[in-house]
Amino acid sequence: MPAAGTVTTRAGWNLWTRILFRACVVYFGLFCLLLTSIPFVLLGILGPWIGGQDDEWALSVTDPVTGWVGRTFFGVDSVLHRDSGAGDQAAIWVLVFCILVVAVVATAVWTAVDRHVRHPRLLAWFTLFLRVCLGGQMLSYGFAKLIPTQMPGPTLAQLLQPYGDLSPASVLWLQIGSSPAYEMALGAVEVVAGLLLFVPRTAVLGAAVSLASMAQVFLTDMTYDIPEKLLSAHLLLISLVLLAPYLRRLVDVFVRQRPCEPLASPALFTDRRRIRIALWVQVAISIWIAVGSGYWRGVVWQEQYAPDSPKSQLYGIWDVRDFTLDGRPAPPLTTDVNRWQRLVFDAPGEATYQRMNGELVPALADFQPDGQLELATMTGMTEGAGGNAGSQPPFATLHAEQPAPDRLSLRGELNGRPVAITLERVDLNSFVLRSRGFHWVEDYPYFR
Q1: What range defines the domain where residue 273 resides?
Q2: How far apart are alpha carbons 285 and 98 in whole angstroms?
Q3: How many Å apart are CA 195 and CA 199, to the nearest integer?
Q4: In whole angstroms, what is the distance from residue 137 CA to residue 151 CA?
Q5: Do 143 and 257 share a domain, yes or no?
Q6: At 402, phi and psi to the nearest 5?
């Protein structure tokens, strides 16, 4: 007899069930291996050491194929942009199309040559495969929110950016990042769903929680134009695939209020000892992934977002009080293309200056030991270079002095012209977004 809690299906599947199952095996099998970071996530804490931060290695293998298909059938340049990080690139859409074509052809051939009327053992292993894939993604993205690093709060420069200049994606990111507790709650739900998926007895509950969570993620991706629509849609579909065998029983319980059979995952083996070993292996994998995801997100938090994380030595927003160029004071006119309105120092090695028309311009900031400050143009190649201007020639070479903690004097050259700038530090608590806080009692709504 099969072990308790196993699901057996002795009756043969109808033709359409067999076709749909085989298509799912091929399509989602290829998708999980080629289009998600599953192999990277399974490396756990060793991931960044073994594979660096590159979790798109599989896509580079298929790049020649997607490039040819894109040019031949769609007339687009579908080359993977490895510096992008976006999951909705043309190359990925073309690859999904290729996977779909392969799945259709493979399913037709499989159905033509295979006379089996059901695949109970393959169903068990395929279910486990999908649980691991979905669970790994839920843990990875869940810890990115539980340890709030995926959607950080607004930078100092973003506090100065007009709301109308923000993209919908930035609005969502800053909205959630402005409330770390809310972001952590979202992450906790995803982490719980991921952990539940790795235990056979709770896998159905984990799939249901994942379905609800990914429905919300997919909705925000679609309505805020987040470039991860393909991934969130497929994680949503995987949740539905995992729930599909139990839909009738779930309806019996929650809608018709009738008793149902146990909602257990199909057993990988008939031997109880092997079933127990498989259970502990799954639990160990979940712990391994959780520890790895949590550890590396903690490292990122400590290095970039924690209160004591490294910051620029002139950290803050500085209002320009006096601006002298070529020995002549420059009045604060919005038409002046040379004068600055503000200067912002936030992350180490970076700065942002605000022109008089309100434009925010990022720059590299290199602080020399003698107190000299060099500002260089930040390009796509130098962004995030840690403050080393490298081959970028500085457009400003300034000597920085602080006569008082909230006063700053800069003297030197700006674009080859002598300049003297006097600045005053802005109180960051003057921004309501940073100082408003939480209130149990509010006699009137506070909207600004």
Answers
A1: 15-305
A2: 31
A3: 7
A4: 17
A5: yes
A6: -120, 95
Whether the predicted pLDDT of 385 surpasses 90: no
Q: What is the CATH number of the domain that holds 361?
A: 2.40.128.20
In this structure, what token pair is assigned to residue 187?
Answer: 């992450």
Domain assignment present for residue 381? The answer is yes
Confidence check: pLDDT of 226 > 90? yes
Element (H, E) at 209: helix 203-223
For residues 62 and 145, membership in a common domain is answered with yes
Specify the number of domains making up the chain.
2
pLDDT digits (tens, 9 = 90+) for 347-370: 999 999 999 999 999 999 999 988
| Any domain includes 412 | yes
**Exposed, middle or buried: residue 43 (CB in 10 Å: 0-12, 13-18, 19+)?**
middle
Look up residue 48 and give its two tokens: 């960044």
**Among 305, 332, 362, where does a domain finish?**
305
Q: Give the per-residue pLDDT at 3.
A: 41
Q: Are residues 370 and 253 in the same domain?
A: no
pLDDT band at residue 85 using 50, 70 and 90 as cut-offs: confident
Contact (CB, 8 A) for 375 and 345: no
pLDDT at residue 7, as a whole number: 45
Greatest CA separation found in the chain? 94
- Cα separation, 359 vs 52, in Å, equals 36
Could you tell me how far CA 52 lies from the centroid of its own chain? 17
Give the residue carrying structure tokens 């199952």.
21
**Contact present, 93 and 21 (Cβ < 8 Å):** no
Token pair of 404 as six digits: 């008082």
DSSP three-state, residue 402: strand
Evaluate whether 57 touches 71 at the Cβ level (below 8 Å). no
Q: How many whole angstroms separate alpha carbon 320 and alpha carbon 332?
A: 9
The pLDDT of residue 152 is above 60: yes
Q: What are the tokens at 128? A: 């486990």
Q: Are 339 and 268 part of one and the same domain?
A: no
Token pair for 45: 């804490």
Nearest of 183, 195, 205, 181 to residue 139 by alpha carbon: 195
The better pLDDT of the pair 46, 286 is held by 286
Q: For residues 161 and 360, is the Cβ–Cβ distance under 8 A? A: yes
User: SS3 helix, strand, coil % of the chain, rounded to 5?
Assistant: 50, 15, 35
Helix (H), strand (E) at residue 250: helix 247-254
- Is 197 a member of any domain? yes
Geometric angle at alpha carbon 322, from 409 and 327, rounded to 5°: 90
Q: Which of 305, 336, 357 is a domain's end point?
A: 305
How far is it, in rounded angstroms, from Cα 238 to Cα 244?
A: 10
Task: Collect all residues with Cβ–Cβ distance below 8 Å to 259 and sequence separation of at least 6.
Answer: 252, 253
Q: What is the pTM of this model?
A: 0.89
